[in-house]
Amino acid sequence: MTDNVLVPADVAAYYEANVEADRLAAGTGALEFERTKEIVSRFLPAQAMVVDVGGGTGRYAEWLAETGRRVELVEPVPLHVKLARERAADPPRFGVQLGEARALPFPEGSCDGVLLLGPLYHLGEERDRVDVLREAARICRAGGVVFAAAISRLAPLLDMVGRGSIGSAEIFANVQAETVTGRRVGADRRRSPFPDAYFHLPGELEAELRAAGLRVEGVFGVEGPGWLLPGLAAEWGQEEVRERVLAAARAFESEPHLIGVSAHLLGVATKPRG
């Protein structure tokens, strides 16, 4: 647990190892970044005050600031806060503060949009995830937009196949359990450093957004099948391949049978007026 912020020890340890520094710069991370920006741009007003909750090292906040939007980043991991402040520069292009997604330091109706591109990942209980979504809705104005990312229920299974580790009986058993329950196996069984997490079905994310009192505009598959391409990091630099990977993601982002093929889901919802 970090100082004064509710973060489980395994989650804090994982992110304090600086795994996020360059994650969105190459390979599957670069695909996730580009597609998330596309979807956010589709729904977020050009002139907007945005709160980036769990904003990590500030990649999305930096992008939003470059588009002319006002941004406040709230992040529970001290290392990320430090790196985000460095990215914001001096004078800061966006605000950065230590904080927790269930108790945001902003008044009701004070922003036009909220990014939740991570806070739902590590909350295993539905009630906690809905609390986060309600808090995001609280600080949004009527008609404001909440963007909530989730890890797809199929991500562990597809990642195992893509990495070629399906031959391990132990890993297969772990992934099978995670695919059935949606919950990361216990720490004693894990064979990778990724901490406790919840993996969503598309319908679950939609239901949680509704339970928070939001109007769902859509649940989208972010990466499409392209994140499974062997050597994506090398191929991403080739414009034709990159555009095909992005086109495949766009084509199937709302196809009910294929949304879960993406590693990440992005729920988009608005705060009702009146």
The span between the termini is 39 Å
Biggest sheet overview: 8 strands, mixed
Strand content range: 15-25%
SSE run:
HHEHEHEEHEHHEHEHHE
Number of helical stretches of at least 4 residues: 10
The number of strands is 8
**Radius of gyration from the CA trace?**
18 Å
**Structural class by SSE content:** alpha/beta
What does this structure look like?
- With 274 residues, this protein is an alpha/beta fold.
- It is built from 10 helices and 8 strands.
- Strands 1, 2, 3, 4, 5, 6, 7 and 8 form an 8-stranded mixed sheet that branches.
- Helix 6 packs antiparallel against helix 7.
- The longest helix has 17 residues, at 27-43.
- The relative contact order is 0.15.
- The mean pLDDT is 95.
In short:
Helix content is 39%, strand content 18%.
Could you name the key traits of this structure?
alpha/beta; 8 strands; 10 helices; single chain
Show the helix and strand layout.
Elements: H1 9-16, H2 27-43, E1 49-53, H3 59-66, E2 70-75, H4 78-88, E3 95-98, E4 111-116, H5 126-139, E5 140-152, H6 155-163, H7 169-181, E6 199-200, H8 202-211, E7 215-221, H9 232-235, H10 239-251, E8 264-270
